[in-house]
Amino acid sequence: NLAFPPGAVLPFDPSVNNSNSIRSYFLLSTIDVPSPSDPDPIVALLSSPGPLWVLKRRSVHAIDGSHPDLSQRLLYPGVGCIDLRSAISVDEGLFFAGEQGVFHSPDGEQLVNLTKGWIQREWDALMRSWDANSYVTCGVASGHLIVSGSFGGTARTYAYDLRERAWVSRFSNITARHFFTARVSGEIEKLFF
Hints:
Layout: H1 23-26, E1 42-46, E2 52-56, E3 59-66, E4 69-77, E5 88-90, E6 93-98, E7 101-105, E8 112-113, H2 120-128, E9 135-141, E10 144-151, E11 154-161, E12 166-171, E13 180-182, E14 190-192
Antiparallel strand pairs: 1-2, 2-3, 3-4, 5-6, 6-7, 7-8, 9-10, 10-11, 11-12, 13-14
């Protein structure tokens, strides 16, 4: 292969010269969500108690079944994920940020817009300023969803109390690009950014 220099190790290809007796283990099937000609990009995949969620920019799909019998279905048209860093699957459910708000699915089927009636007007204004340098990330710790990002240069961090089901704080002087949660035995849960 002219694309590789002499002596290079070629990438593994399970369909070529594979003497493994469990060949089907390596040859997983593919599924188009929803079709190869759909221009809407896949942003994230989230595991749930039910189907595997496929978050696209402007839609949410589900993949049901197990190999080799997989099927896909459209769960929520017109709702999608704007940043991979905002898509998380945690004990409290699935969370992601989209153009229409911050979304939560407690069970892998229903979807709740957490911004409706609370911070929707401000979220809409932030989305109007979304540009190529914008980002948003989500994290969960100590019963709170933390949503942080830079929206067209405007920094915002929000805290949502998952027990009380209410937005409890808004900050404009801190932002995080990623969140990491640590649970140390005997200590409180910590969220790092």
